[in-house]
């Protein structure tokens, strides 16, 4: 039973436009959410995160929104750039004090930025 | 440079031949985890460790063993590898009270 779901395996966006990646979760115990970015032949790298007590977190071109009642979060990238083409993983943790037991990941969304 | 180092990067082995994938981090992190990545399945946790001598099963632990005798090292052991363990493996570490896991570059394992 998948607890973190990314229902879009791929997404194609034109350069300069907004990219919106979605993620849903089922476990109400999840307390902290993260987005990781992964290029081929590399390990995932941390992008941005949000605590369950917030509904928005911003870092430069990246914004994560959390709708706790809907168990839904999204990552917005504005404006999209060619270097943003990668696989994006949504992840969640149950512990509020840190990811002691690791993270639960979704299946990933392959974002393709077209020139 | 702060990093998580996995070895080897690539490995082809035969069914039943015991192997170990090493993982070492130089950031003095308490938390460490192993994941496997498979097409269409994303990243799934195999084992995790909260500190030295403290390990526990993740979502897909069958066929794997781990140990955490030192803080910096967290090897993944396949006692009798099978073809369904062909996968891309990632080790990751994080500081106490942090969620920001740092990942290694991965080990691509093929079991024939």
Question: What features would you describe in this structure?
Answer:
The complex is a heterodimer of chains A (115) and B (112). With 115 residues, chain A is mainly beta. Chain A has strands at 4-5, 10-14, 19-25, 32-38, 45-51, 56-59, 62-67, 72-77, 86-93, 104-105, 109-114. The termini of chain A are far apart. The model of chain A has no long low-confidence stretch (mean pLDDT 93). Helix content of chain B is 0%, strand content 51%. Chain B is globular. Chain A binds chain B through residues 6, 9, 32, 34, 36, 41-46, 49, 89, 91, 93, 97-108, and chain B through 4, 31, 33, 35, 40-45, 48, 50, 56, 58-59, 90, 92, 94-106.
Observed structural traits:
heterodimer; A: 115 residues; mainly beta; six-stranded mixed β-sheet; 0% helix; B: 112 residues; seven-stranded mixed β-sheet; 51% strand; globular
SSE diagram, text form:
The complex is a heterodimer of chains A (115) and B (112).
Chain A: E1 4-5, E2 10-14, E3 19-25, E4 32-38, E5 45-51, E6 56-59, E7 62-67, E8 72-77, E9 86-93, E10 104-105, E11 109-114
Parallel strand pairs in A: 2-11
Antiparallel strand pairs in A: 1-3, 3-8, 4-5, 4-9, 6-7, 7-8, 9-10, 9-11
Chain B: E1 4-7, E2 10-13, E3 19-25, E4 31-38, E5 42-51, E6 54-57, E7 65-66, E8 76-78, E9 87-94, E10 102-103, E11 107-111
Parallel strand pairs in B: 2-11
Antiparallel strand pairs in B: 1-3, 3-8, 4-5, 4-9, 5-6, 7-8, 9-10, 9-11
